Prior knowledge:
Elements: E1 20-29, E2 32-36, E3 39-44, E4 47-54, H1 65-80, H2 85-99, E5 105-119, E6 126-141, E7 147-162, H3 164-178, H4 184-193, E8 200-211, H5 219-229, E9 232-233, H6 240-251, H7 257-271, E10 280-288, E11 295-303, H8 304-313
Antiparallel strand pairs: 1-4, 2-3, 4-5, 5-6, 6-7, 7-8, 7-9, 8-10, 10-11
Amino acid sequence: xxxxxxxDTQDKQPTIPVSLTKVGVTGVKKLLKxxxxxxxxxxxxxxxxxxxDLPSTQKGVHMSRNPEAISExxxxxxxxxxxxxxxxxxxxxxRLLEKHEYATRSETQAQGDYVINKLSPxxxxxxxxxxxxxxxxxxxxxxxxxxxVKKMIGAEVIGMTVCPCAQESVEKDSKEKLLKFLDEETTQxxxxxxxxxxxxxxxxxxxxxxxxxxxxxNVDDLIEIIQNSMSAQVCEILKRPDENSVVTSAHQNPVFxxxxxxxxxxxxxxxxxxxxxxxxxxxxxxxxxxxHQHNAFAQKNASFKQLREEYNQGK
Length: 315
């Protein structure tokens, strides 16, 4: 018995002839194992979103083609030992345009937990820290059928920040109290020897960096840049000497939310001197306040040309 021919309802004219910017699927989870030379493989469970645009002449997209494309591209990534999640997203974006002949634009995103191994600062206890890895890609089809792709890679990292202004207030108040029974010289020596209290924040920093299709960026470098932008790194396992080291180090390096973004800019410009001027980056920092109900936020959107110009002006 032959299979009946089912109608393609999606190909019909819509009742309301309006084009749509993005149509597709979200929340597609896939297991991904990335092999690395001379290192243990990375196992990810990323969540994929995949969209295409829809012309006003098309009632709907062929939705099953999106998860189908995700499965195909991931299988190919395993066979070719692809090691970059943003390249997988770029290949997926191109595959979507190949499967949806009526679309001129596609967009993909993958996000998942990325585990890094580290040691506690003093006792050197082994611990696993979880960060978020983010990859995106956008593909465009021109009138001649040529497909161009932009891809982005990024990470979101948790750290610790210490408020500078509160610390200055505590130091000023402490100095006035010390001067009541110590001379100026001794008081200054005490101020230089001790670490002053301040309120702390859990900081969440993120970088999303655009690169050309043939360029790759190591996400571990982005994670390190974010970690170093805050007052101190956090660690899942901390014994007493480790706690003392983290807290003391953080209070010796107080930063505003704005400082964190600027520190990330410096890290990016110094790490990637050869990235093209038109590469774009989005840098964000959220500090979850401990003495307020609100949070502090800062962001920078810029091309690498702008970042380099501002960086060189500040030297």
